[in-house]
Every structure is written in structure tokens, then in C-alpha cells.
From TrEMBL:
This is MFS family permease. Pfam families: MFS_1 (PF07690). The lineage of its organism: Bacteria, Bacillati, Armatimonadota, Armatimonadia, Armatimonadales. InterPro entries: MFS, MFS_dom, MFS_Efflux_Transporters, MFS_trans_sf, Sugar_P_transporter. Residues 10-408 form the Major facilitator superfamily (MFS) profile domain. Keywords: Cell membrane, Membrane, Transmembrane, Transmembrane helix.
């Protein structure tokens, strides 16, 4: 029997690892203006640098997920942390576009192993009764890491050179792994459900070959719709992460450090609150409604879409702050139920593999979005129009989620 305190302590330890997962991957976006100024990169080249991470992250995600179902999750998580931390340090040595593309691709390879393994591990400590809350709390580390990575990179980049924050993040990540490897323990697979008597399986569930998993997955309509929705939602999210610092610098003439902080602070702080709120509401609703988690996501994306349009359209900084905060709140509510809703329709032995597939498709969309925005702006589309247009994608996501909720109830 898992001690109630330890199952939350595990979430807390993973919180810090996930913090660096996002701080390391997103810090570079805050120094894009410096790379453009000092190294002469165009917005298309910057978009390619951003896309390099996401494409490798996406393409290797199914493999990473399958590894998480075959090997101890603790080992997969910590190995990934060491690899991506070392690669983050190598970013400081880059001087040409091809260098950045290769290094960012390598970082994507290291980081892609974290989420499938960590979500599966959390779900083996937390049953459906607390799963959305646990994942929602873990999700707040994404927002904290995004804020810290953006603010640190902007501040250090202006004062000590664009490359300086990457050394700091690399060393801190390695030290964290050395500390936590003593305290994270590997649970039995499907442990949480067995302890609460929700699944009466003897022994640990066995992972299946990828071909069998894909065949089963294709027959699970709700899961397919959830992944399609994630494709769109993650595209919108990464457009904001990639281009908002540049948008604030060019449209509102903010200094780099202020733009790096402003681009992340309001959205991510609001997302923290949304993630905690969404987890509580969804855990309660899902006890009486099989599609409760998905409906929470659907309402959040429907409400959030107009605020995305407003972010690109407004010329008033205060209106922009309100719009970013409202979008962030809705995004957090959606994010808190991302994997929890998915796991409601996925067998426990397939959780890591399923998360890998979700990341594969979701981050392909994200990489496409960041590159398309860069190309569009280089060819005359305003950054304001490009950002506002992603609100239409969010409306499409809401429609897909309402459809998924209906299939879950059928």
C-alpha cells in the first residue's frame, strides 16, 4: 500500500524535474531578438530553430513512450534529465543556424522521454479519484519553468551575453538529478487502481507490441479525437511561447528582459491557477459523468478562443495583459486534464506509449505553427494578425472536444 504522503511527494519531486524540462527548452525564445541582432538570423531561420526541437521531440515521442512502458520509469526520467541538461549547456557554443538546429534537435530527443514516463508514473500512484489534481499540480511546474526560463534568459542575455543562461540551467539540472535519484521509487504498474479495487488484475499489466497498440488505439474514437484536439491546442500554445517575446519587443517597444518576462508571466501565472482549478473540478465531475474531464476542457477552450484573438488585435498594453491572463486561465484548465482524460480511455499498460503518440502528433503541430508564423511574417503578414488567427484554431479544438465528450458518453 502506497503511503498517502509519498504519492504526493513523488509529484513534488517530478515538479522540479519538469520545471527544468520547460525552462531549458523555452529559454532560447527570449534571446531570439539577440540572435537576430548579433548573429543576423531572419525570422524564418528563428522559426526553423524553434521547429527543430519540436519536430525531433515529436518524431521520437512514440519510441520514447514505448520505452516508458518497457523500462523502469524512474530510470527513463533521470536519464532524460541528464541528457537534456548536457545539451542545454552545448547551446551556449552555437554560432550558426545549423549548430542551433542540431543542438535543439538533440535537446528534443532528450526531453521527449520525460512526459510519457512521468505521466504514467504519476498515474500509478494516483487513481482516477485524485489523478486530475495530481497532474494539475504537476502541470504548474510547466508554467513556472516557462516563466523562469524566459525571465532568466532575457535578463542574463542582456547583461552577460545570449549564451550565459544555458550554462546555468545545465548545471542546475544535473545537480537536481543527482539529488532526486535517491528518493524517487518505481511503483508497480496499475498500482493505484489495484489498491482501490478498480481493476482486479493480478500482477503487473504487460506492455503490448506497437502494432497491436496502434490497432487498439485506432478503434478508440474518444482517444483519437483527444489527440486531434491536442494537435491544435499545442500549436496555439507554442506560437505564443515562440513569438510573444518578439511580438512585445516589436509592437510595444519593450526591452528584451521585460518582453521575455511579460510574454510568459501573465499567461503562465494564470495557467497555474487554471490548472489547479481544472484538476479539482474535473476530479469531482468525472465521478458522476464519464465525459466530465473532457467537458471541462471543451468549455475552457471555447471561452479562451476570443481572448487569443484579442491578444493579437489590441494596441492597449493593459487590455493585452487581461487577454493573456484570461487565455492562460483557460489554457491551464485544459492542460490539467490533458493526460487524465486520455488515461480514462487507455489501458494502464499502454499509458506511456499512448502519451508518446499524443506528443508525436501534438508537437508536430506545434513545430509547424512556429515555423509558419515566421515564414508568414517574413512575407508581409503582421505578427498581430498571425497571433489573432490562432484563435480560430482554438474554436476548432473546442468543437472537437465537445464531440469527444459525446463519444465518451455513448
Amino acid at each position: 500500500m502506497t503511503a498517502p504522503r509519498y504519492k504526493w511527494l513523488v509529484v513534488g519531486m517530478l515538479w522540479f524535474i519538469c520545471f527544468f524540462n520547460y525552462a531549458d527548452r523555452l529559454a532560447i525564445f527570449s534571446v531570439f531578438p539577440l540572435l537576430q541582432k548579433e548573429l543576423g538570423f531572419s525570422k524564418t531561420e528563428l522559426g526553423l530553430i524553434g521547429a527543430a526541437f519540436t519536430w525531433v521531440y515529436a518524431l521520437t515521442a512514440p519510441f520514447a513512450g514505448h520505452v516508458g512502458d518497457k523500462m523502469p520509469r524512474k530510470m527513463v526520467i533521470l536519464a532524460g534529465l541528464y541528457v537534456w541538461s548536457l545539451v542545454t549547456g552545448l547551446t551556449a557554443q552555437c554560432t550558426r543556424v545549423i549548430h542551433f538546429v542540431l543542438v535543439r534537435g538533440a535537446e528534443g530527443l532528450g526531453e521527449t522521454f520525460y512526459f510519457p514516463a512521468s505521466m504514467a508514473l504519476i498515474s500509478d500512484y494516483h487513481s482516477p479519484r485524485t489523478r486530475s489534481r495530481a497532474i494539475g499540480f504537476h502541470q504548474t511546474s510547466i508554467y513556472a519553468g516557462t516563466i523562469a526560463g524566459g525571465a532568466l534568459a532575457g535578463w542574463m542575455g542582456e547583461r552577460y551575453g545570449w549564451y550565459s543562461p544555458f550554462w546555468v540551467l545545465a548545471v542546475a539540472g544535473i545537480l537536481l538529478g543527482l539529488v532526486l535519484q535517491r528518493f524517487i521509487h518505481e511503483p508497480q504498474r496499475n498500482q493505484a487502481e489495484r489498491e482501490e479495487g478498480e481493476r482486479a488484475e493480478e500482477g503487473e499489466p504487460v506492455a503490448v507490441p506497437m502494432r497491436q497498440f496502434l490497432r487498439e488505439f485506432a478503434q478508440t474514437k474518444t482517444a483519437v479525437l483527444l489527440i486531434v484536439a491536442y494537435f491544435g491546442a499545442n500549436l496555439v500554445g507554442l506560437v505564443f511561447l515562440t513569438w510573444m517575446p518578439t511580438f512585445l519587443t516589436e509592437k510595444f517597444h519593450l526591452k528584451l528582459a521585460v518582453a521575455g518576462l511579460g510574454a510568459t508571466l501573465f499567461i503562465q501565472l494564470a495557467s497555474m491557477g487554471g490548472s489547479l482549478l481544472g484538476g479539482v473540478v474535473a476530479d469531482k465531475w468525472s465521478q458522476t459523468n464519464a465525459g466530465g474531464r473532457i467537458l471541462v476542457q471543451a468549455v475552457a477552450t471555447l471561452v479562451g478562443a476570443p481572448f487569443i484573438v484579442l491578444c493579437g488585435w489590441t494596441r492597449d498594453p493593459w487590455v493585452l495583459i487581461v487577454a493573456m491572463s484570461c487565455y492562460g486561465l483557460c489554457k491551464g484548465i485544459y492542460d490539467s486534464n490533458l493526460t487524465a482524460a486520455f488515461y480514462d480511455v487507455i489501458h494502464p499498460s499502454r499509458r506511456s506509449t499512448a502519451t508518446g503518440l499524443m506528443n508525436f502528433l501534438g508537437w508536430l503541430g506545434a513545430g509547424l505553427g512556429s515555423l509558419v508564423i515566421g515564414v508568414a511574417v517574413d512575407h508581409g503578414v503582421t505578427m498581430s494578425a498571425a497571433i489573432s488567427s490562432t484563435g480560430l484554431i482554438y474554436l476548432g479544438v473546442a468543437a472537437i472536444l465537445f464531440r469527444a465528450a459525446r463519444t465518451r458518453l455513448a
